[in-house]
Design a protein that fits this description.
By secondary structure, the protein is α/β, with parallel strands linked by helices. The protein contains 14 helices and 38 strands. The termini are far apart.
């Protein structure tokens, strides 16, 4: 950064050709934002040759449209009353506190308005207020020529009187940061102070706020806690302000719109507004309010329930619950009446406080009209019972819901994709009526009690790709019990158990699924075939071990014995005592291998493993069932 001096001020120019710091002599009442040419002239007119050579290189960077980038600098120059702006300056970025007492702008630059008390920029049309400087209590703010108020324009000001503000149509988020409004109560027309079309202050103690269609609001305008009701002229006006109201709790929102809605997703008008009640004007012939919720005029379709309601009883006349109707609502329980015959997508999405759901008897197919995600992300819900009248669940019906209890009654024929992906139960009972399960369900379930035929899609649902496991194995600890699942099939009064390893290839899962659901049978050696196609060594060992412990199939034990040499080396490499001791308990190692394992355990001073190996050696002397 290079300093260029004038008689009363210094300009510090960066190698990027921007002025990034200034210093002004005390007592100076006028400061000039010099153009690139003026700064170059000062350098070239320098009497000191060393000063000239020191600064001549920076002149090459002083090009057309010089930028004064001075925001955030702590320097303040209270003696300066007038700012002069020369031509060929691209932008001036300053804080009000740098020049707290400026009251006159002289501009020779087409980008800034001349002969005004504030810094007002203009592009295609005039009106961008950049700096009002530090308006004092009692001073009048004249907004003539101002149409838009930029960030920091009124920072540090004390505003008590404003004139000529009718042309203002908008402002940036931090336009009034650290600004104090000192208006008298009588100046709050309709309870607000407006700069043109922008509400900048709301009267303290106000209980009802009315917002017309043509009005905007300053984003950090303080919202009095005394306000109980906010009234809007239209739904579009509400949608425009939802981002502002989302920060506050409001008892009632009133909407004086007489028209029908142009979208079926009414929640888009409300966003995440925390209101308890919505009142629709009685003059609206398309919509009406019932207990603070929005319905169609015939009371058959429930369109929207406000988020801040913690309880709501759906009226018996209701026939349809619209999409997103309860989305994000704070209700803790809900009962769907039998009169309801349809529920739209995401109707209860994200109701995190919902802990109890009672489904009615009016819906048979929850996905009949393409609905999905009805109770998605209702993370507080732990139990659900699907009534016998229901034949099908919809896609994502309980997605991201960690259900601890699921009851499926006879009558259910189809489970939609992702309906029960995140259940945390170990055991689940599938009704005999169930014929098809779409992908991504019951991922964590270990035991399936099946009251009839195995439904199509079940094996594909539960199986996990071996390649996926191998890629994530180092990050995820898999317990032995997690690698298998069991089907308890009840047919003709007889129970049959079928065991499977959970991690198998996709084609194997499809093959098993087809054989079971179509022909109700599996090959005699299906377990051996499954295990032989597992590529990951640890997963293979764990799978065969657990299948043998549950089935006592001697072929599985023989398979482990064949692999005993490689298993021994991996047990030593992995230093996994738990797995090693389990393998020792089923006597797969030869005496020579046990001696090698004993040396390793003793060298590691591992008393637990040493004791287990000694016990296995003792058993080894009593048996000869080894392959050496």
């Amino acid at each position: 950064m290079v300093e260029i001096k004038t008689e009363r001020a210094s300009y510090y120019i960066s190698t990027h050709g921007k002025c990034e710091y200034i210093d002004i002599e005390p007592g100076t009442d006028t400061f000039t934002f010099l153009s690139p040419e003026s700064l170059k002239d000062i350098v070239h007119q320098a009497k000191s040759q060393s000063y000239l050579w020191q600064n001549i290189s920076i002149c090459n960077h002083l090009t057309h449209g010089l930028v004064y980038r001075l925001k955030g600098i702590e320097q303040t120059f209270p003696d300066v009353k007038t700012l002069i702006i020369e031509d060929d300056i691209g932008a001036i970025h300053i804080d009000n506190r740098m020049f707290p007492n400026v009251n006159h702008i002289i501009s020779n630059n087409k980008r800034y308005i001349n002969n005004v008390p504030m810094l007002i920029a203009q592009s295609d049309e005039p009106g961008y207020l950049m700096n009002a400087f530090c308006i004092k209590r009692g001073e009048t703010v004249d907004l003539r020529n101002v149409k838009y108020i930029c960030n920091g324009a009124f920072s540090g000001c004390h505003i008590s009187k404003v004139i000529n503000s009718d042309d203002v149509w908008g402002c940036e988020e931090n336009a009034f940061k650290d600004c104090k409004f000192l208006f008298n109560d009588e100046e709050y027309a309709d309870g607000t102070i407006k700069f043109g079309k922008v509400i900048v202050s709301i009267k303290p103690g106000l209980t009802k706020l009315n917002i017309p269609n043509d009005i905007d609001i300053y984003s950090t305008c303080e919202f009095p806690g005394s306000i109980k009701e906010v009234s809007f002229d239209s739904f579009d006006c509400l949608a425009k302000f939802k981002w502002y109201l989302e920060k506050y709790d409001i008892d009632t929102i009133s909407i004086n719109d007489k028209h029908a809605l142009e979208t079926p997703n009414i929640s888009q008008y409300f966003g995440n507004i925390n209101a308890k009640n919505i009142n629709i004007t009685k003059e609206n012939k398309f919509l009406k309010s019932i207990d603070g919720a929005i319905f169609t005029a015939d009371e058959k379709i429930l369109l929207y329930c406000p988020q801040n309601k913690d309880r709501y009883t759906i009226p018996d006349k209701t026939e349809t619950i619209g999409s997103y109707a309860f989305s994000g609502c704070h209700i803790t329980s809900i009962t769907i009446p039998d009169t309801v015959s349809g529920i739209g997508s995401y109707a209860f999405y994200g109701c995190e406080m919902l802990t109890e759901v009672k489904l009615g008897n009016g819906i048979t197919d929850y996905g009949e009209f393409g609905a999905f995600g009805i109770f998605q992300n209702c993370t507080g819900l732990k139990h659900i019972e699907i009534p016998s009248c229901v034949t099908a669940t919809c896609e994502n019906m309980f997605h991201n819901v960690n259900l601890e209890s699921v009851v499926l009654h006879e009558g259910l024929r189809y489970i939609g994709r992702n309906s029960f992906r995140n259940v945390t139960v170990d055991t689940i009972t599938l009704p005999a009526s169930l014929k098809m399960i779409a992908p991504d369900n019951f991922h964590g379930v270990k035991v399936f009690n099946i009251c009839g035929d195995v439904p199509a899609g079940l094996i594909v649902d539960i199986a996990k790709n071996t390649q996926s496991y191998s890629q994530r194995m180092k990050k995820i600890k898999i317990n032995n019990e997690d690698v298998i699942f069991v089907l308890n099939i009840m047919q003709d009064g007889k129970e049959k158990k079928l065991y499977f390893t959970r991690y198998i290839s996709t084609w194997q899962a499809n093959q098993l699924d087809y054989l079971l659901s179509t022909f109700k049978t599996l090959p005699d050696d299906y377990l051996i075939d499954l295990c032989k196609n597992i590529n990951d060594p640890e997963l293979l060992i764990r799978s065969v071990l657990m299948l043998y412990k549950h089935t006592h199939e001697n072929k599985l034990r023989k398979l482990l014995q064949i692999m005993s040499g490689s298993i021994l080396r991996r047990c030593i490499d992995w230093e996994n005592d738990e797995l090693t001791i389990e393998l020792l308990s089923i006597q797969i190692f030869a005496q020579q291998e046990l001696n090698e394992l004993l040396k390793f355990a003793q060298k590691q001073d591992n008393t637990t493993l040493t004791a287990a190996v000694l016990n296995a050696l003792a058993d080894c002397n009593d048996t000869s069932d080894f392959i050496i």
